[in-house]
Amino acid sequence: MSEQPTAPAVPGDAEKARIAERFHTGLTTGDWELIRSLLTEDAVWTLPGDNKISGTARGADAVIERARLIAGYGVHFAFERVLVSRDNLALSLHNTASRDGRVLDEYLATVCFLRDGRISAIETYLSDVTGMNAFFI
């Protein structure tokens, strides 16, 4: 009798919520090792726009550096809710900050694609790409 390959386990909704909450905690506290523990080594993070944080960061180290850069601008990441799909999750956030007369006030969905219970890709959707471009110069 041959053994059937088993499909990778899909995290349940509670586990997806836990991953989302830990990711948010890492962003708000600067716990980069916590974020690293949630990522696959080949993780990518894509952001729209044309500024210092735009484009695709490739690899866990680059994703961590992107998170550090964003946090370094004094962004307040207000957690609104976790959204789940069958296989993945999204964080609904309201980001605000001000510096040098510039104001950031944007709503976003940070969609996290999971592989084997870890984040393998992040894609961020923004309400105000023009405002983000003006803030992250």
Question: What does this protein structure show overall?
Answer:
The protein is an alpha+beta fold and 137 residues long. The protein is 32% helix and 41% strand. Strands 2-1-6-5-4-3 form a six-stranded mixed sheet. β3 and β4 (89-99) form a beta hairpin.
State the gist of this model.
The chain has 4 helices and 6 strands, in the order ααββαββββα.
Key attributes of the depicted protein:
137 residues, globular, alpha+beta, 32% helix, 4 helices, 6 strands, six-stranded mixed sheet, single chain
Task: State the helicity in percent bands.
Answer: 25-40%
Q: Please, what is the average pLDDT?
A: 94
Instruction: Please outline the major beta sheet.
Output: 6 strands, mixed
Task: Provide the gyration radius in Å.
Answer: 16 Å
Unreliable spans are: none
What distance separates the N and C termini? 62 Å
| Spatial arrangement of strands, main beta sheet | 2-1-6-5-4-3
General form: globular
Q: Tell me which oligomeric state these chains represent.
A: single chain
Structural class: alpha+beta
Write down the secondary-structure element order. HHEEHEEEEH
Strand residues, percent: 35-45%
Per DSSP E runs of 2 or more residues, the count of β-strands stands at 6
Counted by DSSP, the helix tally is 4
